[in-house]
Automatic annotation (TrEMBL):
GO terms for cellular component: extracellular space; secretory granule membrane. Residues 70-171 form the Copper type II ascorbate-dependent monooxygenase N-terminal domain. It is found in: Membrane. This is DOMON domain-containing protein. The keyword Disulfide bond applies. InterPro entries: Cu2_ascorb_mOase-like_C (IPR014784), Cu2_ascorb_mOase_N (IPR000323), Cu2_ascorb_mOase_N_sf (IPR036939), Cu2_monoox_C (IPR024548), DBH-like (IPR000945), DOH_DOMON (IPR045266), PHM/PNGase_F_dom_sf (IPR008977). Its cofactor is Cu(2+). The keyword Membrane applies. One of its GO terms (biological process) is octopamine biosynthetic process. Its main location: membrane.
Length: 426
């Protein structure tokens, strides 16, 4: 569709050998409903190159031009992955975990699936994230005042590399040697940094109905968890990596203190699972003990015919924000899911009031799949997620949970919402 108003000005083209630069000027927000708002987060750039000058768009077929495509980037920008050449479509994301154990303890060597029954139990201490990468991410550099501590007298020398693959064609002859290159310095920085996981648990208790233009899920890091785990002076969040799978289209994390919503930690309104950078935040967040964080993901399942559940597979979904911060605390995971009892009651309600074949004998995924989804049942599920108590993962770096009853915790309430930013439009 032709744009009714041209908001791009001062076009210039410069060519030097095989390199062509195309330059123009445009406001970030043109206030034109047909234009893309350039804001923090991902920008999708669509381009097409043809032969000779273009005098009219009448009859123009962009798909027939000699060169066209789409590039994702972060225009308003302020460890390094080593992906084996040719395996870019295969490698979905990578995490490196430190094995938090006695420095003299030897962790058994293991190579295989994370959930295999023959995985040595001793490797379960390898849970502290020290590096993370996902599709589209570029090398990440820590700020001058902080660095990830590696080594020392009390540091166990074992780490675990976890690679998630997306082998859509089920090729059985694909061999991969991808990994992560870590650059270290012997000059100790002022603060020890760490990584904290926010969002939803990687399990099927949270689900997205089919044929939805927008369906939202939220994961909570609650007051009770930060209150028991963070240092009195709080922590400084300087980086963030948002993460979903194929149906995610928007992700953001809200910051709550005493019921008042403060400036968001990070937001990407044009999120793409194929462009998951670790982004250095322009404005850092001070997270104090007792503060809460809510990570919300928007999903689009218009092309799916049945439920999408949470899980590790690329066809499943996730909602995660890996935040990079200092000084290092012992809090490793602050994530949630709906309480077990409320989900059981929901499946019971579907059977008794909606005549759906849900049953206590079925597993969670099977119960979701047994429901014939219509607008009313979708709305009931949405209200369930936004009103029910939650089950919390408030976990230490060793994998142990902080003391407390985390099985049925009230949702974080916001009494004072952050005003919606005003657009500078006439």
């Amino acid at each position: 569709m032709e744009d009714e108003h041209q908001d791009c000005k001062n076009f210039r083209v410069m060519t030097h050998g095989n390199l062509t630069k195309f330059i123009f000027v445009r406001k970030f927000d043109t206030c034109d409903s047909q234009d893309y708002v350039i804001e923090e987060g991902t920008t999708h750039i669509v381009y097409s190159i043809g032969d000779g000058p273009l005098f009219s768009i009448n009859g123009l077929n962009i798909s027939a031009t000699s060169h066209n495509g789409m590039q994702r980037t972060q225009l308003l920008k302020n460890f390094e992955p080593i992906i084996q050449k040719g395996n870019e479509p295969l490698v979905h994301h990578i995490e490196v975990f430190h094995c938090v154990a006695d420095p003299e303890e030897k962790i058994p060597l293991y190579s295989g699936p994370c959930t295999a029954t023959n995985r040595p139990q001793a490797t379960q201490v390898c849970k502290k994230v020290i590096a993370a990468w996902a599709m589209g991410a570029t090398p990440f550099t820590y700020p001058r005042e902080a660095g990830l501590p590696i080594g020392g007298l009390d540091f166990n020398r074992f780490v675990m590399l976890e690679v998630h693959y997306n082998n859509q064609n089920m090729k059985d002859d694909w061999v991969d040697s991808s990994g992560v290159r870590v650059h270290v310095t012997d000059e100790l920085r002022e603060n020890d940094a760490a990584v904290l996981e926010l969002g939803l648990e990687y399990i099927d208790k949270m689900a997205i109905p089919p044929r939805q233009k927008v369906f939202t899920l939220s994961g909570y890091c609650i007051t009770e968890c930060t209150g028991i785990s963070l240092p009195p002076e709080g922590i400084v969040i300087f980086g963030s990596q948002l993460h979903t799978h194929l149906t995610g289209v928007r992700v953001f994390t809200k910051h709550i203190r005493d019921g008042k919503e403060l400036k968001e930690v990070n937001r990407d309104n044009h999120y793409s699972t194929h462009f998951q950078e670790i982004r250095m935040l322009k404005e850092r967040t001070i997270l104090l003990p007792g503060d809460a964080l809510i990570t919300t993901c928007w999903y689009n399942t218009e092309d799916r015919t049945n439920i999408t559940v949470g899980g590790f597979a690329i066809s499943d979904e996730m909602c995660v924000n890996y935040i990079y911060y200092y000084p290092k605390s012992n809090l490793e995971v602050c994530k949630s899911s709906i309480s077990d009892s409320n989900l059981i009651n929901y499946f019971k309600l579907m059977n008794e009031l909606e005549n759906q074949p849900t049953s206590p004998k079925l597993g969670i995924t099977d119960n979701y799949n047994s429901i014939e989804w219509n607008p009313i049942r979708v709305r009931i599920l949405d209200e369930l997620y936004h009103q029910s108590p939650i089950y919390m993962q408030c976990n230490q770096s060793s994998g142990a949970r902080y003391p407390g009853d985390w099985s049925r915790v009230p949702l974080t309430k916001i009494s004072h919402h952050l005003p919606i930013p005003k657009r500078d439009c006439p």
